[in-house]
Design brief:
Strand content: under 5%
Number of helices: 3
Shape: elongated
Helix content: over 70%
Keywords: Membrane, Transmembrane, Transmembrane helix
Distance between the termini: 40 Å
Largest sheet: none
Number of strands: 0
Number of domains: 1
Order of helices and strands: HHH
């Protein structure tokens, strides 16, 4: 988890937000999991548009 949070700091996320995620690890896991599905949903949507 610390690697993910340090990565977020390195890409420019505000320290205040990262500290908030560090205090609430369940929220951080849920947000990261949701963000991981965004590219999959976009690819499926684009594929369906091409077939449609």
């Amino acid at each position: 988890m610390d690697r993910v949070l340090s990565f977020l700091l390195n890409i420019g996320m505000p320290r205040r937000l990262v500290d908030g995620l560090r205090r609430r690890p369940l929220l951080a896991i849920v947000l990261i999991g949701a963000l991981a599905w965004v590219p999959v949903i976009v690819l499926v949507w684009l594929f369906l548009r091409l077939l449609g």
